[in-house]
Write a structure and sequence with these properties.
- There is one protein chain.
- The chain is α/β, with parallel strands linked by helices and 224 residues long.
- The protein has one domain: Rossmann fold.
- 31% of the residues lie in helices and 27% in strands.
- The strands form two sheets. An eight-stranded mixed sheet has the order 6-7-5-4-8-9-11-10, with helices on both faces.
- Helix 7 crosses helix 8.
Length: 224
């Protein structure tokens, strides 16, 4: 089911979790306010290269918005994104969407590459290169696929569904694995503000620095 959000962009209902992929307050606006701005991507982009871990891909708005923002700050910045996604059905959904984000064409390219890889029996990992942008998508439960990552990241987007339905992505063990893959001073942003999440992030070696203003509930920003 398609929903129009308050900024005019569309989101969809995930029937497995019975939740929308984005807040009704604004799907695209939320991507910027909840993830792009809190992780200071513009500042990192000025260095010439940036690495982002995206948990989870969903409809790809967060990645597309990140690429758009980085390119505005530094068109020559080398962008390396790793995204984790459990539900391979999102790729068929992505093909049907046309949000007002110019860089969403790259997400559609990722979806096309998934369909191609699926036919070849290699659909557990997709990699695309688009100019100075590289996106690697690992398909499967993020609790498991994160072990296939050795990269250190400048920013992390942690975007699960609610804690009641997606608690595995907020567990102390999983957060510790994320922390191990963050560079010093890297930032993690999440829309979730579950009761014990701050303690789990602190135990993982992260410092809580701020909250995000948009989302289903006030989120958390933490720095390594």
């Amino acid at each position: 089911m398609k929903y129009i959000t308050k900024d005019g962009s569309f989101t969809l209902l995930n029937t497995d979790y019975n939740e929308t992929y984005h807040p009704i307050s604004g799907a695209i606006k939320g991507a910027y306010k909840r993830f792009i701005e809190p992780t200071l991507l513009g500042d990192v982009a000025k260095r010439g290269a940036i690495k982002i871990l995206d948990v989870a891909l969903g409809l790809g708005y967060n990645i597309a918005a990140a690429i758009e923002d980085i390119k505005k700050k530094n068109p020559d910045c080398i962008i390396n994104i790793t995204t984790l996604e459990k539900d391979s059905n999102v790729f068929s959904l992505i093909k049907k969407l046309n949000p007002n984000i110019k860089s969403y064409k790259i997400i559609k390219e990722l979806a096309r590459e998934y369909e191609k890889s699926k036919k070849e029996g290699k659909a557990d990992e997709i990699v695309i290169k688009h100019g100075n942008i590289i996106i690697r998508a690992l398909i499967g439960d993020a609790v498991n696929t994160i072990s296939r990552i050795s990269t250190k990241f400048d920013a992390v987007f942690l975007d699960p569904f609610s804690p009641q339905r997606n608690s595995e992505l907020l567990s102390p063990d999983f957060l510790s694995k994320i922390s191990l893959r963050m560079k010093k001073k890297a930032r993690l942003a999440t829309i979730i503000k579950a009761g014990k999440l701050k303690d789990s992030l602190k135990d993982a070696g992260l410092k809580i620095v701020a909250g995000t203003p948009e989302g289903r509930a006030p989120g958390i920003v933490a720095v390594k």
